[in-house]
Amino acid sequence: MNKNFVTISAFFCALLLATGAAENKVPEGVWTIGPRTLPPPSAASDAMRKAILKTPAPDVEATNKLTPQTRAQWEAFINETDARAATRARTLAKNLSVTVEKDKIGGVNVYRVTPAQIDPKHKHHLFVYLHGGAYIVYSGEAGTTEAVLIAARLKIPVLSIDYRMPPAYPAPAGINDVVSVYRQLLKKRTSASMAMGGSSAGGGLTLASVHRFKQLGLDLPGALYLGTPGVDVTKTGDSRYINEGIDRILVSWDGIPFNALKMYAENYDLKHPYVSPIYGDFSGFPPTYLISGTRDLLLSDTVRTHRKMRAAGVIADLNVYEGQSHGDYLAWMDLPESREHYAELNAFLLRYLKN
């Protein structure tokens, strides 16, 4: 074959490839990463690996199609989710011999969650719990599952706040409810005797509420618990991209999570500290325990919060577990990683809470 022909052919092939690449060019600096395989995490516990092996790979497209489009669809989704979660919470409370009593403080519905036995070291302590659920689900008893688990595992009294949520009550309704309850609690006990926190949206609401406490000049809780907190309504942070389709719980930020948080942030700019507390001032915040996992869509939220706290001089203990998706320590509460997490949390609270 003529060498010139080969050279010319190669030139035109390269030209065609270059033209095609130009037409489908991605933004400068953006990486295109091809298909990859993800084995079960070899460094996790045997129980965690077995649980992941039994779990189908998350489907981003199918999950995002489940996002409600109208208010009626959102309300139906919320009602169905809450009904299932309330049943789980009641069953868990019964199995763990934890009592759950509905009450009202400062005009806000709350649940008093009490273990069968209270650790004498926690006799004068109270855990003020804020439930997760993307600020839209887990109202009423449905929001007490982790409160029950904390009460049982830490042997500490828990007060779960049933704060108002969208679509009827966007921010700052939830923050206002937390402030109302906290003000009343401060009349009967010291701030140093109380921990405050929760997972996911509960972690985000904890931070937003403490921002508000500071503005109001209220004494801050003795310690905070941030379980894989949602701290940014915008799609910011590596893990929102890297762990899409890997996190078995949230799966993708662009579906229910983002659309739910947009409803919550209805009255605010998306970077306002009341809805995206990462953009607030963390100076003076209480000692804080944070947890996430390597497969968590909100790993970056947790890491960014930890770094911002450390930069502000706050005592912050970051715990990242191998192989865990968003809130797996709660979803898979019988695994060794879950028990280790709550033991670590308990040790942290005992270190910083006062009577």
Q: Report the uncertain regions.
A: 1-23
Q: Please, how many domains?
A: 1
The proportion of residues forming helix, as a percent range, comes to: 40-55%
Which homologous superfamily in CATH is the superfamily? Alpha/Beta hydrolase fold, catalytic domain
Describe the overall structure.
It is built from 12 helices and 8 strands. With 355 residues, the chain is α/β, with parallel strands linked by helices. The protein has a single domain, classed as Rossmann fold (3-Layer(aba) Sandwich), CATH 3.40.50.1820. Strands 1-2-4-3-5-6-7-8 form an 8-stranded mixed beta sheet, with helices on both faces. Strand 5, helix 7 and strand 6 form a beta-alpha-beta unit. Helix 4 (71-95) packs parallel to helix 5 (145-154) and helix 6 crosses helix 7. The radius of gyration is 23 Å and the shape is globular. 43% of the residues are buried. Mean pLDDT is 93; it is low at 1-23.
Overview in brief:
By secondary structure, the chain is an alpha/beta fold. The protein has one domain: Rossmann fold (3-Layer(aba) Sandwich), CATH 3.40.50.
Task: List the defining traits of the structure above.
single chain; 355 residues; alpha/beta; Rossmann fold; 8-stranded mixed β-sheet; 12 helices; 8 strands; 41% helix; globular
